[in-house]
Amino acid sequence: MNKMTGILATAILAGGLLAGCVSQEGATGNSEKGTSGGGGNEKLKIAVVPKLMGIPYFNASEKGAIQAGKDLGVETIYTGPTEPDAAQQVKVIEDLISQDVDVIAVAPNDAASLSPVLQKAKDEGIIVMDWDTPADQSLVELSVHQIDDEAYGRHIAKSLVKQMGVEKGQIAILTGGLSAANLNTWIDAAKKELEENYPGIELVSDKIATDEKQQVAYQKTLDLIKSNPELKGIMAFSTPAPLGAAQAVQEKGLQDDITVVGTALPKDSSPYLEDGSLDVAILWEPDKLGYLTVALAKRLAEGEKPEDGLKVENVGEIDVWEDGKTIIMGPPTDFTKDNAADFNF
What we know:
Helix content: 40-55%
Radius of gyration: 21 Å
Strand order of the largest sheet: 1-3-2-4-5-6-16-15
Distance between the termini: 38 Å
Structural class: alpha/beta
């Protein structure tokens, strides 16, 4: 693979900032790629693309990815769109292809929209992975999942009913983007759990998009409360959505009437967990997910595929499914008012 000169790489990276934000660091805190005039001292260049930059979840993932670059001696480029927009993600990936990176790991906003540009990356000899959210599985070498999606969605549904204290009543589902594959998988599993085991639970509408924004989730929840006075519960998928739902419940003083559970970070959740406007936040450690993604990308670039039970430094033991492609980092964690302060993310 041709390696860009330092000047050209810098110019291209600057242009990429128009499409999104970039964090770039390796073992020494800066890039050595292209500064040695070629030869064997060049680092692997691993690009990690989130759905969007700037929200706490993906900030935590970035921290882990950058730390992995330092620890493992690779150059990590963490860059993504400033909105959860597939077209912006395509531009970001196009820019990474032009930088001649070795691996691109992406969390798609819309998997189908990214397939052509990921195929282009493969044609250029770049290894393609997904993380956090599945891409087109025919294009990726590894698919790095936080948890078992089916078990996770069912766990969220069971947690909602448990926190409600009754097995009947009206509920609603908030989501981030309607095309986000991971959120849709979790929601489908949650709905299946309710249909199979809690026939008394009634959905008041189809899933409601919140555009990965707390303020939108807050307003949508206020609308739900107004139009559904008998509403008993909300499941919120995407890390800003539970916070917005809880904010609305808190404002209306309905902590004892409406149960909210969802996929939120413990630090952000604490104010709402304390007063019961958010009953439980259910997630994993996103910094470890970022770390794992870079660690597995490095192995792939060096010609190694992970095996089931592999112990990854700073992450733990992972599960590798029989397809040899699907990676499960581990089980989710329930964050409550009793343990949220124990976590620093």
